[in-house]
Please model this.
Amino acid sequence: MWRRLDVDDYDAVMALRQTVLGSLPDPDFYVREDDERMFVRGHLDLFGESVGYFDGDALVAYLALTTDLVSSAEDIEFASCEPTFSDVVFAAAMVLPEYRGRALHRAGIRHHIAAARAIGALRGMAQISARNHRSLRSYLSEGFRITRAVEYPDGRRRLRSSTPTAGAACCWSAISSGAIGSH
Model:
């Protein structure tokens, strides 16, 4: 069952993140946040929202959406995308290893596309490692498109182009006919 997460879910989200990040076959799949605690706390109510999928009482998947790019400093991270106040960032998506392959990631993306539409967002952005093929397929299948290449001061590369290359990561922008998630 999917539901919006709140501050009472903080410990469950932190535990899920630790398990997922520790299980990734390539460290480029997800770059840990400088301040994991603030990132999670902020996406539970300060500058975004998170949704989680539960199997009974256990959180098995979660996705974070940044709705206030300035407060979260995502406007700096996404500066090359020229963010506006009507943009949101698909900030994190994680599924426990034993629950992968059940389309939970895609379902979570759809939840956040609906949430972005509900608040009037015109564009959603996400950064994904080109090595993380499963995640790339999920975002592409939900209407995200690559638009060009970006390199950050810490050396991470992000692509906004039509052809991602191995070893790089992608900066996506989902805009079609002025509405996020339209196909």
Summary: The chain has one domain: 2-174.
